[in-house]
């Protein structure tokens, strides 16, 4: 719920002037025990593979942030999607 | 970057006392054009399938929020992971 509030407060509602198709994915992992190997980098590759089944996204258009502190890891994917035509071509 | 700041400010750093393994996934989609069918519900199923390759998570442990407003959709998955032993069983 807090994340939704964050999006509401930080993102401008009138994004029509930007007119960019964007996808933002955020994965946060709170670990109960430290020292375990992280599976988020592998998870990232598989999530991207899933997304590419839905949208024709170039990997150059994906920016990735990965951070780790104490028992929390955060993976952030920001994807600028290609422009889509507003009406189907006939 | 903003999302990372959000996580840092809102989450207690000393989550060791909670000791729960948690995974939170957030997908935000800004659409350039309205009226397109959403693929996020299908994407949700596939992301969950990917996660279940890494962790043995019961679907009962997944709570889902989906919101749509104007050209923005937000899908939020909150997953409580099963307790893991701190040392391998021999």
Automatic annotation (TrEMBL), chains A, B:
Q: Please give the InterPro entries that the UniProt record associates with this protein.
A: MinE, MinE_sf
Q: Which UniProt keywords apply?
A: Cell cycle, Cell division
Spell out the molecular function terms from Gene Ontology: identical protein binding
Q: Give yes or no: UniProt keyword Transcription regulation.
A: no
Give the source's domain of life in one word: Bacteria
Which Pfam families does the UniProt record give? MinE
Keyword Nucleotide-binding included in the entry's annotation: no
Extract one GO BP annotation from the record.
regulation of division septum assembly
- Provide the function of this protein: Prevents the cell division inhibition by proteins MinC and MinD at internal division sites while permitting inhibition at polar sites. This ensures cell division at the proper site by restricting the formation of a division septum at the midpoint of the long axis of the cell.
Record's family?
Belongs to the MinE family.
- What's the name of the protein? Cell division topological specificity factor
Natural source organism = Imhoffiella purpurea
């Amino acid at each position: 719920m807090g994340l939704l509030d964050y999006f509401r407060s930080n993102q401008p509602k009138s994004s029509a002037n930007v007119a960019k198709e964007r996808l933002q994915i955020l994965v946060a992992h709170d670990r109960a025990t430290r020292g375990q190997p992280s599976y988020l980098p592998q998870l990232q590759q598989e999530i991207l593979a899933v997304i590419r089944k839905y949208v024709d996204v170039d990997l150059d258009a994906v920016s990735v942030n990965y951070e780790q502190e104490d028992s929390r890891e955060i993976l952030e994917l920001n994807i600028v999607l290609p422009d889509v035509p507003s009406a189907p071509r006939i």
